[in-house]
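Students often ask why inverse folding is considered easier than folding. One informal answer: many sequences map to the same fold, so there is more than one right answer. In these notes we will look at a single instance of the problem. The structure comes first.
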């Protein structure tokens, strides 16, 4: 794999596959989360209004699983790359776990929100660090304003976070790498098409993603096994 040039700007997009080897289930694979839960029952504004207790049960389970997980070699390789590239690396993740941060990455853009943050669904109070779990949820936690406290997660039908910063970095990047994402959820699935033709496009994962045709390089394998060598050559 050719090294990157000193003036290359690298954009890395990670998905659930980068945390799979840390024991956090993906969404669509075998044993994927969406095999056991219906998205519309636990991860949408409608679900929140219809059954907030079930939503908190789902995110409490995900908080318990994620808090027991540790970064794997893929997270560590990306944290090492950030030390080397500094501002020439833009790390955008669809994941809501904190394994990139635990591995040492300092600048992580969580476009789908963060599992260990909550916010009020009524007032403009900023999202706050929250590791609480409700099992079973006795009641819905309340803000001082009386609003209901919800997970700080971008649900289906909501707008992902930081899209201006993300597209600014996409417009600047000369190398785009996607790691462990099935390429079916927008807008992340179209990031590669946005840069194709003017950036090297690299995919890392055990199976081809749905948007494979937009990538010029594909490294089939587990992120924890492929990334250390691949990024070590950068
Ligand atoms: N290393 C790298 N990739 C892996 C590994 C691994 N060890 N194990 C599985 N994968 C790949 C799978 O092949 C699959 O392509 O990870 C991908 C996981 O795909 P999804 O489960 O669809 O997860 P993701 O693409 O991140 O989902 C995007 O959908 O449900 C929403 O908001 C949720 O952020 C999520 C978004």
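Output (designed amino acids):
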């Amino acid at each position: 794999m050719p090294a990157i040039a000193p003036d290359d700007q690298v954009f890395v997009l990670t998905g659930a596959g980068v945390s799979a080897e840390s024991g956090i289930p993906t969404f669509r694979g075998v044993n994927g989360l969406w095999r056991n839960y219906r998205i519309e029952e636990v991860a949408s504004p409608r679900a929140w209004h219809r059954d907030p207790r079930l939503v908190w049960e789902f995110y409490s389970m995900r908080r318990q699983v994620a808090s027991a997980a540790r970064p794997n070699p893929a997270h560590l390789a990306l944290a090492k790359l950030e030390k080397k590239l500094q501002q020439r690396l833009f790390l955008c993740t669809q994941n809501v776990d904190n394994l990139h941060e635990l591995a040492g990455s300092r600048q992580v853009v969580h476009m789908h929100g963060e599992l260990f943050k909550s916010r009020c669904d009524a007032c403009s109070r900023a999202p706050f660090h929250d590791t609480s779990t409700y099992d079973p949820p006795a009641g819905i936690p309340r803000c001082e304003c009386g609003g209901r406290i919800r997970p700080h997660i971008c649900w289906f039908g909501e707008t992902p976070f930081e899209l201006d910063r993300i597209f600014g970095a996409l417009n600047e990047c000369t190398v785009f790498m996607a790691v462990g994402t099935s390429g079916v959820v927008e807008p992340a699935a179209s990031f590669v098409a946005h840069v194709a033709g003017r950036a090297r496009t690299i995919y890392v994962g055990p199976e081809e993603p749905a948007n494979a045709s937009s990538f010029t390089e594909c490294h089939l394998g587990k992120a924890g096994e492929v990334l250390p060598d691949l990024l070590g050559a950068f």
